[in-house]
Amino acid sequence: MNSEALVNGAALVNDDRARYDRAAIALGAGSLVSSIFVLGADAPTPIDFAHVGLGGAIVLAALGLVGILGGALHRGSLILVAGGGLTIAALVQLATLPLSPRPLGGDASMMALLGAFGIGLLAVGLARRSAASTPPGTTSILDRKADP
Questions:
Q1: 106-136, pLDDT tens digit by residue?
Q2: C-alpha angle with apex 84: 61 to 80, nearest 5 degrees?
Q3: Quick one: CA dihedral 61, 63, 66, 68, positive or negative?
Q4: What CA–CA distance (Å, rounded) separates 112 from 122?
Q5: In terms of CB atoms within 10 Å, which end of the chain has fewer, N or C?
Q6: Where are the domains of the chain?
Q7: Who contacts 78 (Cβ-Cβ below 8 Å, separation ≥6)?
Q8: Alpha helical stretches, state H, the chain
């Protein structure tokens, strides 16, 4: 394999990781912005899209910020931490739905928000890790097209 192929392969891997980093920034920003739904109940016209409690808003904002930082700083581990934290928060919300005062507040719509952003960030973080572990100049088995 010549050096030009290695350089081109390394550029492709870096380009793939940059795409995953941009996706992590977008998902983290979505999570951060979703925390404003905590104000929905007190708005002059109630926002009925999602019912987010104060605890859930803090989790969405904090872990959304971690996801943004992970993408901006090119740190896959931060992306995975944000995704894992949001997914765990969704599971906590699911487990506490029958309780009257829920620790995170909100309802099942908040569980859906937490789960969606968490699973999305986990998927991006794991795909980024897979792209980083693929040697330059090769393609992942998942990216190869089957021969007809």
A1: 889 999 999 999 999 999 999 988 877 766 6
A2: 90
A3: negative
A4: 15
A5: C
A6: 10-133
A7: 66, 67, 69, 70
A8: 3-34, 54-72, 76-95, 108-133
The token duo for 14 is 């870096």
From the number of C-beta atoms within 10 Å of its C-beta (0-12, 13-18, 19+), residue 58 rates as middle
Write the pLDDT tens digit of every residue in 57-94.
999 999 999 999 999 999 999 999 999 999 999 999 99
Rounded to whole angstroms, the Cα distance separating 141 from 73 reads: 28
- pTM recorded for the entire structure: 0.80
